[in-house]
Amino acid sequence: MNIPLPSEGQIDRRLAQMLAADSTQTGENAVTDRLMLMLTRSCELRCAYCFVGLTEEGFGEPHPGTLASASAAEPPRGDMAPETALRAIDLLMTSAKPRLSIQLFGGEPTRRWDLVSAVLGHALRHPMRRSRELALQLTTNGLGFDPTRIAELGAAGVVVQLSVDGQGAGNRFRRPFLYDQGAADARWLDALHALRAGTARWFLNVTVPPAATGELPSRYADAVALGAPALQLNYATGMHFSGEQRHAWLTGLAAVLADHRRAPDLQLFNRQAAADPAPLCGDTLCDVDGTLLQIGGIFHERRFPALRKAYTHGHLHTATRWEGHRATLAELWARTQAALPPEESALFLEGMRLGAASDLVARTVAVLVPGRV
Ligand code: SF4
User: Fold this and answer.
1) From the CB of residue 128, how many other CB atoms can be counted at a distance below 10 Å?
2) Other beta carbons less than 10 A from residue 81's beta carbon
């Protein structure tokens, strides 16, 4: 079926609506408060589309969590100290929302498995949780997995977000750094098999840079072939997409969404519209040094370094309650325009417009091709 793509005017109107409505995931009216924890800035890979300020300097060393680092322009080095991680969870637990969520993030969070275990234990048994639903998620490249670790995540109810680009040539954007290509691929495949055999819930998270937008249907086919229970397809943020590449992303997304009913065992998260218009995202993250900032400041650290300071909302050491450490999407966009030079703001806006266009495509497919998600 030929799915009509949105016009430029429709995209602008949809983006304005999304900014005015604020984040459906984490905004004032959302039922969940979400905390992301940056456990380490170390990672085995250096993916081509990753703009997080990664470093192996200070790996294994707990950051002292000094207040001064919150105002520094440079990203901190080292890992999160256990007391910082536990204190961040204590702060989340002061939230008044009926649902809570914690996402373990990095760098590669499994590089500090001791912190993963400590966070899960503290969060699940926290006295201020008061029987509230607590969603736990781990974002990982999978290279640090083994069956024992996967069993621990399964027992704690953690949902694993396993990053991959695709099979074979598709993985050319995931650049090994601490391993050679063969060892990294082998470790990832071992992780996939262990997840398929284990009890933890998981899904594949695929990021498509501009050069690979034409490969969207094949990335989807890879996920089906790999036996993934669920899939999230993302476009890379902070990168310029030509008109042709934007068109390829949107037509590929429309085709995948419309054809999805042929894969009855795969849940496709892209069919659920109303995601935040990436690169703008409402989630609040605690960095390794205790700085509290919205996630776009970390995602774009090496691409738009000024956003780190612009998106910062203080430090764990001075925070007494969860509320007050996030800006609305409209406020974030205003901060973005104030912090970036016009050409960088334009690139950022291009990414948001692609998010709004993707949302419209998902809505159109939902109407024209109703069915399971
Ligand atoms: S695995 Fe994740 S943190 Fe590591 S380089 Fe790739 S995108 Fe960045």
Assistant:
1) 12
2) 18
Q: What's the confidence (pLDDT) of residue 272?
A: 72
Please give the structure tokens belonging to residue 26: 């984490």
Does residue 110 line the site of ligand 1, with CB under 6 A?
A: no
Give the position, in ligand 1's atom list, of the atom nearest the Cα of 174.
6
> By the 8 A CB rule, do 295 and 34 touch?
no
- Ligand 1, atom 5, residue with closest C-alpha: 46
Give the Å distance between the CA of 184 and the centre of ligand 1. Answer: 13
Which residue's entry shows tokens 């069919």? 271
Beta carbon of 162 within 6 Å of any ligand 1 atom: no
Determine the pLDDT at residue 262. 65
Q: Which runs of consecutive H residues, i.e. helices, occur in the chain?
A: 8-21, 82-92, 113-124, 147-156, 181-197, 216-225, 243-259, 296-299, 306-310, 329-339, 342-368
Give pLDDT, residue 111: 97
**What backbone phi and psi angles, to 5 degrees, belong to 162?**
-95, 120
Coil, strand or helix at 189: helix
Residue owning the nearest CA to atom 1 of ligand 1: 141
pTM over 0.85: yes
Query: Across the 373 residues of the chain, what is the mean pLDDT of every consecutive 10-residue run?
Result: 91 95 81 96 94 95 80 83 97 96 96 98 96 96 95 97 75 84 88 94 94 91 90 94 97 91 78 75 93 94 94 93 93 97 97 95 88 57
Q: What angle do CA 294, 296, 302 make, to 5 degrees?
A: 125
Best of 46, 51, 52, 105 for a ligand 1 pocket test (most atoms within 8 Å of beta carbon): 52
Enumerate domains of the chain plus CATH numbers: 8-365 (3.20.20.70)
The atom of ligand 1 lying closest to the CA of 107 is: 3
DSSP SS3 for 97: coil
309: alpha, beta or left, given left = phi > 0 and alpha = psi -120 to 50? Answer: alpha
Q: What Cα–Cα distance (Å) separates residue 67 from each residue in 34, 299, 318, 336? A: 22, 22, 8, 24
pLDDT of residue 169: 59
> How many Å apart are CA 164 and CA 292, to the nearest integer?
28
